[in-house]
């Protein structure tokens, strides 16, 4: 080596000047050196380095081979236009040549071939480019590269190619290397992207190179280049590789051979692209600029189709989470204070569409829980970019309904942390998050004011050392609420604080408070404590809201009602300012002069909100233009957000004080009213929805229309939902038949989508008929659709057909639970009812061949054939499957409730058609149908039971009443149920024919008639008590029972016949029980039932007895038992005997020639005695029983004129003592009836005179009458009289006792030992009645002058009774106090002064004996 000349070594010239070959040079060296393996390896490595540093491998090979080797140049191999390679050379030939050359050179063939291929790749890339920074190959370049890669694959297959050497050679031509070449090398398996990146020595440089190329690639994709499909495939593969390798889970941390560069490069490139996009958006990128296109394309990689197969791994979720963190934390420039001022501009509608699109793509992979949790974690650990954080919050609440609850819970935790640990940052974060979420409207999140209000009403528990912080917070919150025009002082008296979302307008809440206060006043007779407290402690609300709502001008009723009494009570208590009361009285007087104006009011002029309404209209028009392209879901979402913002502006709501989402909506179905601005805005929304549905349906069926309808529906939630429902009430309930087909279709589809969100919507209170029962929104539509007249029946059919068809088409691929939530069972039942009723062909059973397909298209055409559409839906297979669900069966009870609403005079069916339909429905459809399917299992008695219950329910519901504002409830307001009652009569007649002759009609041996079982069960379900509401409800129920009984055969009351082997009274036991327990209290007047039910019972009794073996004996036995079991039947017969006697006499003589039965003759004789007693002639003695004669005399006395009563009653001196006692009791009942019954024929003064006259006779003859005021069921007298008098009368006996105060004889009070005991007992009970408010029922009615001695009102009566006792107590003997302690044990506190007087007198010394010598010592 020392003899070599270094300068000439490169040229290879020897001493002789001849140029020597490379082989000769190497051979010379080999001769001079010994064979050494180590030196041989070093030599080979040196040769490899030499080859790598040589740029022109073709020239090198030419130097090795000489000129003939030029034919093997790879430029011809990759030249597809040259056929030389195919004619003379094959890949195998070139490969063998490379092997020979590598052997001669002493280098690996893989290194040699890798260098040659890399050099050829460089030649391909350096061809003329179309752009300044190309990333894609031209067509010509792609062909050449394809040939080259085929050769490279051959080399790989024969182990003649070094990937590492190839990668290193490629990076030497990095500046000219095209991204598409790298992709082809990766895809065709020459060298993977991972190998290529791992071989680069500088990770930062390779990351920058990839970033530049990806940006160019995105720009060319958006520019719609010629090879866009190749570009998209490249981008997808690169992103998949970066996501998979950059965010894979490291399963084995101990691995040391795993390369580490690729994950770092992948993360670096993805992060560079995201930061570039975020910076571009922050700088205000210009629309359709190159940067805008790049960002738009890159954000598209977050969609599922770009991620391809890696979407099933965990890597995309980690990538999305990392991306979300970068979005929230990149370039944190703004402070929280800046965010407070600027966050109004960061709402969903105002955020850049590219960023909102990115958010929505992230939401696809991450659940709401994960998003909120990640947001919480980032805010707790890092500095954040507040604009992107808050815009993410807006996107969350807009896109995820469940985000409202998640954010609410998180904010609650933040507030708890703030107060528990004095963390100001947590409170600031909570404020910012709530303010931002509230910007999106109440459909997405509760209002900011509502959130403040909740925290004041429900402050958190805090440690004592931070209590001052809470106090300051509440003070500031109240101030902020005042700024937001939501004062805590405006809360109602009876507002439910547990419903945090319920913020009612003060005026509306005041109206509810007034109604509840009046209700309490009705029950107690006192001003409610809540109202008294409000007048003192909450005077601003009381004066500004409660009193104006109470003192609303109106036409005052002739008979003062509860409202008038309540106002007068407040005035007497000085709780109404005189000026306000005077103004109220003047306004009421004016209302009487002009009742029309007072009732209707004046409609306000339209407000000057033209510009916001125009903006809302423009936004709606823009949305409509997108309806024909269902693929633009992202655009539609943003447009709907803009509509929501414009709607808020049109209604005058700003971001801070928009109305909160309430827990219950008040809706008046019969008189829905809207403000003009609300009316216009809601009409725009509804019209737009209908037009959008028509436009979308013209290009696609409902299932392919995208989410526009659901998004649009959400704008109608929250603050505008009450107005929307009110307008729907106007349209559907009041104007339904006049709506066109597009309106019907649009509103039906809207109803479906409102049902889809039923869980997020508040309940609806539909008016005074059910104040505590809220309806879900789907059930509301069932209430709005009436089935009464021909027009309403047809409209209801159209709406139900459209709603059900739309839901079946829209959710055809989803579970049945969706259908159940979208449609109320009542709507489906109404559709079945209408189809059965209107189309006789639908009443026939369906076969499998009848199943039809369902198409939405015919329904939106202008000439929609609704009958054909309804029948098509009826036979649709999916609908038939839906009808198998139990909760949508049209049951027999459902059918009855709907049929009872029909008005026969306006029915779509004629009388004959309606009767035929009833016969089919009852006997052919529901009677044989199984009970599981809503039928009766063939049981006619069960069918009658359901029918009777349906009649009762219908007459107690608001549907059977006229609810005009100035009319009272009219019982049985319509006659639509007459046909149904006729069906009941027919069914009962059928039961008579089916009855076993040995068993009375409608009876079983051990049980009575099934009707009485129905009555008993219904009465047990009613509220018991003495308050007005409970009594009226029970009385109304019993009046309906009586009406039904009167329409059925009289045999229902006592059977069709009596058998000797069975106890006779058992057959009437149920009717007797009904009379004693219920009718006695609610259907009787003055100790007698009404004439109709009395006559009905006696007709039935005679009919049944006349079929027995001994009719006369049977009648006597039954009526004799009535004296102890149901004496009210007999007193009723006495009262109505003049009209009852001819009927019974004719009925009896038609079958028997014998006289009337003995017990009937007793009634006849009692009535005759009473008539004779009041005649001028001598009276005959009273027949037995004495109580019956006394009752007859009492009824006869009521018919005598008042001026003759005293003269007639002088004959009582000759009557028996027992008769006088009974007559005194009946007279007391008459006195109470004259007060309790407003239309009583007996004047109270006359009734009092009768009582006084009878009492005077009793006192004169020294007959004890005190037992009448101490009646119990244990004694014979009590068992009789307590079953004649109503319970209310016996409770008010203390009132009658002291009404006769002036008639008591002084010596009688002292003479009778029991008098003091009875007097004290009556006084204490009278005080208790007054405290409970029960004495108000016997107060003098308005307009009636009560001329009673010692009685002007209950207070005066109690005062005089008290004075009487205080004077009586000292005069009574010691023995009169024997049982006084028992009376005072539990009622002594009713009057402490009287109790003290009684105890003092009881404990005094025994009566002094004038003849007893005094004890001096």
Question: Overview of this structure, please?
Answer:
The protein is an all-alpha fold and 1417 residues long. The protein has a two-stranded parallel sheet with strand order 1-2.
Uncertain ranges: 1-17, 53-73, 80-89, 251-257, 496-504, 595-609, 656-660, 960-975, 1001-1006, 1341-1352, 1408-1417
Distance between the termini: 166 Å
What value does the Rg take, in angstroms?
Answer: 50 Å
DSSP strand tally:
2
Mean pLDDT: 78
Helix content: 55-70%
The total of helices stands at 70
Percent strand: under 5%
Label the overall shape. Answer: elongated
Major sheet characteristics:
2 strands, parallel
Q: How are strands sequenced across the largest beta sheet?
A: 1-2
Structural class: mainly alpha
Note the main attributes of this structure.
1417 residues, mainly alpha, two-stranded parallel ribbon, 70 helices, elongated
Task: Give the structure's gist in a few sentences.
This protein is mostly helical and 1417 residues long. Helix content is 61%, strand content 0%.
């Amino acid at each position: 080596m020392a003899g070599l000349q270094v300068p000439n070594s490169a040229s290879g010239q020897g001493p002789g000047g001849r140029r020597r070959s490379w082989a000769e040079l190497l051979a010379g060296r080999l001769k001079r050196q010994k064979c050494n393996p180590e030196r041989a390896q070093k030599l080979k490595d040196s040769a490899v380095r030499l080859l790598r540093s040589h740029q022109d491998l073709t020239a090198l090979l030419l130097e090795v081979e000489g000129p003939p080797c030029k034919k093997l140049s790879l430029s011809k191999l990759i030249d597809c236009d040259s056929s030389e390679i195919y004619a003379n050379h094959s890949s195998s030939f070139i490969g063998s040549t490379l092997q020979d050359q590598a052997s001669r050179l002493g280098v690996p063939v893989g290194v040699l071939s890798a260098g040659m291929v890399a050099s050829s790749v460089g030649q391909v890339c350096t061809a003329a480019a179309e752009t300044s920074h190309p990333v894609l190959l031209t067509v010509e370049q792609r062909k050449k590269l394809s040939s080259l890669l085929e050769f490279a694959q051959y080399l790989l297959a024969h182990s003649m190619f070094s990937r590492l050497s190839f990668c290193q050679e490629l990076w030497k031509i990095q500046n000219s290397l095209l991204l598409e070449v790298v992709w082809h090398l990766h895809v065709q398996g020459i060298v993977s992207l991972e190998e290529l990146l791992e071989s680069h020595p500088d990770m930062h440089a390779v990351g920058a190179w990839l970033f530049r190329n990806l940006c160019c690639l995105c720009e060319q994709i958006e520019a719609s280049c010629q090879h866009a499909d190749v570009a998209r495939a490249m981008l997808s593969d690169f992103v998949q590789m970066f996501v998979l390798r950059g965010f894979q889970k490291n399963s084995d941390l101990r691995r040391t051979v795993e390369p580490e560069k690729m994950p770092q490069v992948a993360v670096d490139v993805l992060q560079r692209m995201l930061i570039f996009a975020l910076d571009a958006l922050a700088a205000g990128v210009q629309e359709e600029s190159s940067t805008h296109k790049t960002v738009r394309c890159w954000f598209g990689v977050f969609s599922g189709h770009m991620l391809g197969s890696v979407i099933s791994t965990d890597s995309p979720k980690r990538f999305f989470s990392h991306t979300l963190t970068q979005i929230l934390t990149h370039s944190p420039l703004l402070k929280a204070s800046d965010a407070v001022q600027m966050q109004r501009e960061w709402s969903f509608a105002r955020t850049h569409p590219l960023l909102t699109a990115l958010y929505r793509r992230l939401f696809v992979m991450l659940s709401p829980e994960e998003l909120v949790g990640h947001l919480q974690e980032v805010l707790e650990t890092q500095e954040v970019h507040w604009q992107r954080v808050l815009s993410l919050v807006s996107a969350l609440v807009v896109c995820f309904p469940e985000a409202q609850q998640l954010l609410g819970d998180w904010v609650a935790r933040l507030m708890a942390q703030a107060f528990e640990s004095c963390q100001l940052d947590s409170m600031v974060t909570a404020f910012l998050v709530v303010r931002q979420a509230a910007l999106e409207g109440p459909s997405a999140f509760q209002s900011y004011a509502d959130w403040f209000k909740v925290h004041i009403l429900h402050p958190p528990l805090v440690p004592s050392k931070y209590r001052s912080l809470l106090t300051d917070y509440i003070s500031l919150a109240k101030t902020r609420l005042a700024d937001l025009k939501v004062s805590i002082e405006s809360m109602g008296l009876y507002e439910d604080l547990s419903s945090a979302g319920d913020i009612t307008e003060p005026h509306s809440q005041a109206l509810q408070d007034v109604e509840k206060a009046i209700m309490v006043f009705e029950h107690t007779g006192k001003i409610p404590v809540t109202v008294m407290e409000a007048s003192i402690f909450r005077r601003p609300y009381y004066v500004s809201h409660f009193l104006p709502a109470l003192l609303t001008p109106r036409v005052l009723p002739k008979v003062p009602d509860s409202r008038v009494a309540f106002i007068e009570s407040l005035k007497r208590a000085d709780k109404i300012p005189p000026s306000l009361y005077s103004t109220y009285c003047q306004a009421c007087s004016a209302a009487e002069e002009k009742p029309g104006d007072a009732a209707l009011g004046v409609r306000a002029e339209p407000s000057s909100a033209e510009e916001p309404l125009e903006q809302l209209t423009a936004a709606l028009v823009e949305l409509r233009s997108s309806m024909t392209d269902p693929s633009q879901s992202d655009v539609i979402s943003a447009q709907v957000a803009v509509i929501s913002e414009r709607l808020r502006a049109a209604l005058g709501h700003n971001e801070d004080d928009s109305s909160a989402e309430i827990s219950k909506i008040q809706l008046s179905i019969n008189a829905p009213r809207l403000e003009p601005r609300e009316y216009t805005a809601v009409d725009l929304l509804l019209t737009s929805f209908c037009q959008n549905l028509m436009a979308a349906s013209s290009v696609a069926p409902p299932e392919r229309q995208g989410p526009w309808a659901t998004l649009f529906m959400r704008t109608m939630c929250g603050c505008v939902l009450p107005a929307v429902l009110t307008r729907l009430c106007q349209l559907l309930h009041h104007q339904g038949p006049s709506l066109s087909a597009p309106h019907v279709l649009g509103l039906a589809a809207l109803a479906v989508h409102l049902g889809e969100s039923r869980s997020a919507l508040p309940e609806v209170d539909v008016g005074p008929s059910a104040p505590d029962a809220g309806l879900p929104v789907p059930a509301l539509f069932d209430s709005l659709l009436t089935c009464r007249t021909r027009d309403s029946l047809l409209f209801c059919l159209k709406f139900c057909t459209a709603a059900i068809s739309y839901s079946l088409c829209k959710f055809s691929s989803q579970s049945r639970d969706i259908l159940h939530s979208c449609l109320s069972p009542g709507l489906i039942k109404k559709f079945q009812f209408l189809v059965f009723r209107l189309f006789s062909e639908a009443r026939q059973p369906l076969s499998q061949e009848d199943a039809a397909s369902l198409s939405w298209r015919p329904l939106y055409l202008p000439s929609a054939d609704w009958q054909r559409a309804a029948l098509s839906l009826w036979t649709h297979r999916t609908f038939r499957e839906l009808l198998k669900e139990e909760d949508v069966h049209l049951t027999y009870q459902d059918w009855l409730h709907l049929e009872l609403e029909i008005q026969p005079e306006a029915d779509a069916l004629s009388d004959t058609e309606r009767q035929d339909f009833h016969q089919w429905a009852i006997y052919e459809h529901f009677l044989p149908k199984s009970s599981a399917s809503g039928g009766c299992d063939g049981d006619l008695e069960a069918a009658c039971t359901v029918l009777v219950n349906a009649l009762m329910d219908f007459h107690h519901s608001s549907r059977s009443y006229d609810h005009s504002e100035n009319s009272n409830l009219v019982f049985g307001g319509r006659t639509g149920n007459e046909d149904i009652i006729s069906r009941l009569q027919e069914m009962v007649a059928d039961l008579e024919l089916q009855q076993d002759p040995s068993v009375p009609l409608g009876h079983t041996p051990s049980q009575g008639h099934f009707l009485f079982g129905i009555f008993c069960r219904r009465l047990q379900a009613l509220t018991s008590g003495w308050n007005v509401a409970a009594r009226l409800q029970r009385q109304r129920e019993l009046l309906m029972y009586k009406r039904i009984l009167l329409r059925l055969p009289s045999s229902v009351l006592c059977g069709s016949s009596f058998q000797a082997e069975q106890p006779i009274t058992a057959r009437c036991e149920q009717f007797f029980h009904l009379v004693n327990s219920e009718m006695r209290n609610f259907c009787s007047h003055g100790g007698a039932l009404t004439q109709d039910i009395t006559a009905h019972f006696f007709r039935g009794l005679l009919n049944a007895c006349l079929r027995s073996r001994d009719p006369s004996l049977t009648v006597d036995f039954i009526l004799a038992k009535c004296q102890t079991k149901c004496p009210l039947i007999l007193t009723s017969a006495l009262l109505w005997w003049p009209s009852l006697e001819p009927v019974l006499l004719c009925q009896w003589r038609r079958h028997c020639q014998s006289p009337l039965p003995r017990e009937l003759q007793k009634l006849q004789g009692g009535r005759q005695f009473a008539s004779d007693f009041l005649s001028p002639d001598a009276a005959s003695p009273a027949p037995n029983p004495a109580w019956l004669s006394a009752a007859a005399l009492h009824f006869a006395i009521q018919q005598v004129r008042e001026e003759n009563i005293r003269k007639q009653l002088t004959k009582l001196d000759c009557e028996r003592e027992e008769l006088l006692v009974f007559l005194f009791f009946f007279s007391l009942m008459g006195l109470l009836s004259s007060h309790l019954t407003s239309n009583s024929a007996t004047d109270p003064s006359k009734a009092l005179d009768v009582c006084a006259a009878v009492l005077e006779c009793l006192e004169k003859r020294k007959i004890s009458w005190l037992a009448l005021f101490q009646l119990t069921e244990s004694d014979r007298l009590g068992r009789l009289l307590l079953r004649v008098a109503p319970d209310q009368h016996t409770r008010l006996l203390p009132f009658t006792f002291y009404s006769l105060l002036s008639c008591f004889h002084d010596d009688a009070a002292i003479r009778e030992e029991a008098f003091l005991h009875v007097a004290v007992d009556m006084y204490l009970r009278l005080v208790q009645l007054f405290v409970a408010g029960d004495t108000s029922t016997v107060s003098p009615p308005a307009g009636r002058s009560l001329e009673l001695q010692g009685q002007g009102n209950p207070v005066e009566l109690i005062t005089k009774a008290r004075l009487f006792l205080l004077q009586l107590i000292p005069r009574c003997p010691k023995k009169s106090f024997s049982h006084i302690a028992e009376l005072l044990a539990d009622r002594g506190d009713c009057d402490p002064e009287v109790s003290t007087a009684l105890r003092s007198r009881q404990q005094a010394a025994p009566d002094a004996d004038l003849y007893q010598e005094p004890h001096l010592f």
